[in-house]
Design goal:
Largest sheet: 4 strands, antiparallel
Order of helices and strands: HHHHEEHEEHH
CATH class of one domain: Alpha Beta
Helix content: 55-70%
Shape: rod-shaped
Structural class: alpha+beta
CATH topology of one domain: Alpha-Beta Plaits
Strand order of the largest sheet: 1-2-4-3
Number of strands: 4
Length: about 230
């Protein structure tokens, strides 16, 4: 007896009739095998299609990347040249700033000497003015009577000068020199020039008689080399 014959035997027909049930439909094994085979083939086929699409896509992207290599190289060269140009411009700007500051330097100008003359008390004498970089050293002497008060007044006046850093003005020494026929009070003052001395004093340069420095500062400001 074949498989089909066994499938046709219905041992439960009477019971189904008693309970009003319908006989289940018999499905052919060949149909089941065909359906399973189709499902089994469809999944690998789908995976193969996806893999093929990904492979083609990857090759296309690789070709696009290779076509962009010359543009990338050109962009890198342009970026390098641009960076080099920026560096040179920065160096030129720094040099121009240094030149502008040198042209507008007030440390050894007549304006600063006039400033000292206006600020030193009449009973004090200024013997030496030494400028070393941003540092300033003043040496002088004065009458013993009231000399210390005059030196202190000179210090306070220097602290108010726009040329100097007020916090750096100090009295290094003040002693009586009795080696001469008439005793004298000798003093030494040190200070540092303000970092913005030229800019801070720009409005007073002409009043101090430094017309040349004032003109240079105005020109540097117009050119944007000074704030």
């Amino acid at each position: 007896m074949g498989v089909g014959a066994w499938l046709e035997i219905d041992l439960l027909r009477q019971r189904r009739e008693d309970y009003g049930q319908v006989r289940p439909q018999v499905v052919s094994t060949r149909s089941l095998l065909r359906r399973g085979a189709l499902i089994g083939i469809a999944l690998p086929a789908g995976l193969l299609l996806i893999c093929g699409w990904l492979l083609v896509r990857n090759q296309w992207l690789a070709a696009e990347a290779r076509s962009l290599l010359p543009a990338q190289q050109e962009y890198g060269d342009l970026e390098q040249r641009l960076q080099t140009t920026r560096t040179k411009l920065k160096q030129l700007d720094d040099q121009n700033q240094e030149i502008a500051k040198a042209l507008a330097d007030v440390r050894s100008s007549s304006a600063f000497l006039t400033e000292l003359q206006r600020r030193i008390p009449t009973r004090l004498q200024l013997d030496s003015v030494v400028v070393e970089g941003k540092g300033l050293t003043l040496l002088g002497e004065g009458d013993p009577e009231g000399g210390f008060k005059m030196v202190n007044a000179f210090l306070l006046s220097l602290k108010n000068s726009s040329f100097l850093d007020s916090s750096s003005v100090i009295l290094v020494d003040a002693v009586f020199d009795e080696r001469k026929q008439s005793p004298r009070l000798r003093y030494q003052v040190k200070a540092n020039f303000a970092s913005d001395a030229a800019e801070a004093s720009a409005g007073r340069l002409r009043q101090l008689g430094a017309n040349g420095v004032a003109l240079r500062v105005e020109l540097m400001r117009r050119l944007g080399l000074l704030p």
